[in-house]
Design a protein that fits this description.
By secondary structure, this protein is an alpha/beta fold. Helices cover 48% and strands 17% of the residues. It has twelve helices and twelve strands. Strands 5-2-1-6-7-8-11-12 form an eight-stranded mixed β-sheet, sandwiched between helices. It is globular and about 55 Å long. The mean pLDDT is 96. One of its GO terms (molecular function) is 2-dehydropantoate 2-reductase activity. It catalyses: (R)-pantoate + NADP(+) = 2-dehydropantoate + NADPH + H(+). This is 2-dehydropantoate 2-reductase.
């Protein structure tokens, strides 16, 4: 017998959530989109996607709501896919925000498709019976205006694994099922036995590039051209601090070779003049809060816990945190 297509709630539907929503619809899923800042545009017109991979497409979620509380009370979601930005310690918490769709429904899997490390524990503690699936995304999309998505590359990878890695077999099956749906919908995905390896591997890109670009207002490629060799040395130095932390905590594969492979991408963009805006730079340009704690703060605190020296990343963290707090103050004065 074939499996019934799942009903999926996507929480925080910006560029990444909108692209994943399209893939899930193409896989036959019923989708509900929790849209916040772009609610009016999506409710009226749906999404408009310009994409190398999927072509130019206009599409609508099956249901659009502003908050999870607006979802039908009798709907049981197979997955709550969180593609909102990650803000550890924020109030109300992520667990509180998704609780109406999850509480009392242990079969609902919570998928944290977000940046950073050490982001799963609070949600897992809040919903100890639910499958917790952690996801690492490589998908260079940008929401250029509400509901309008630009997706200029073929890159489309979602790496998924359970939290913790030794979760029950039923939870692992839920993760594998979502991998299958993403592939069926035209993307790429894979199941990993230990998703934390993938989270640390992405830190090699996120930890240097996101705060550096947000502070300098440069694309990744342009930054490398600003002060050679100093720009290159700063990025590489932060990557080596991540490598040292990964080695200390026992994360395999996050080594110098992996760092070199990732630096090559930005180097090529510098040479070709095709630099990209990392997510933090996109947020700063738009006056939005950015994921300084999930990506950088959690990393430097873990390093101090393990006695790993991170002078470059700690400096970048202090500066980025200052910019973040200044942005908070600006928003409060409006």
């Amino acid at each position: 017998m074939t499996q019934k297509p799942p009903h999926i709630l996507i929480f925080g539907v910006g560029s990444i959530g909108a692209i994943h929503l399209l893939q899930l619809q193409r896989a036959g899923c019923t989708t509900t989109a929790v849209c916040r800042s772009n609610y009016d545009a999506v409710k009226q017109k749906g999404f408009s996607l310009t994409s190398v991979r999927f072509g130019n497409v206009n599409y609508r979620p099956d249901h659009v709501v502003r908050t999870v509380e607006e979802c039908p009370k009798d709907t049981v979601y197979d997955y709550v896919l969180v593609t909102a930005k990650c803000f550890p310690g924020s109030q109300p918490s992520l667990a509180d925000l998704i609780r109406p769709a999850v509480a009392g429904r242990p079969e609902t899997a919570i998928v944290l498709a977000q940046n950073g490390i050490e982001i799963e524990k609070d949600v897992a503690d809040a919903f100890p019976e639910n499958p917790i699936i952690s996801g690492v995304i490589y998908l260079p999309g940008t929401q250029t205006s509400p509901g309008v998505i630009d997706y200029p590359e073929m890159l489309n990878m979602l790496e998924l694994g359970t939290y913790p890695a030794n979760a029950p077999a039923a939870h692992q099956s839920k993760a594998q099922r979502l991998v299958d749906l993403m592939i069926q919908g035209g993307g790429e995905a894979k199941y990993l036995e230990d998703i934390q390896v993938a989270r640390f591997a992405k830190l090699l890109v996120n930890a240097p590039w996101n705060p550096i670009c947000a502070l300098s207002l440069c694309t990744d490629g342009d930054f490398l051209l600003t002060s050679d060799p100093f720009a290159h040395e700063l990025v590489w130095g932060i990557m080596m601090e991540i490598v040292a932390l990964a080695k200390k905590v026992g994360i395999p594969g996050v080594d110098e070779a992996a760092a070199k492979a990732r630096l090559i991408t930005a180097t090529r963009r510098a040479e070709m003049g095709t630099g990209r805006d990392p997510s933090m730079l996109q947020d700063v340009k738009s006056g939005r809060l950015f994921e300084v704690e999930a990506i950088v703060g959690n990393t430097v605190r873990l390093a101090r816990k393990w006695g790993v020296s991170m002078p470059r990343l700690e400096t970048v963290y202090a500066l980025a945190k200052g910019r973040y707090e200044a942005l908070v103050n600006e928003q409060q004065r409006r």
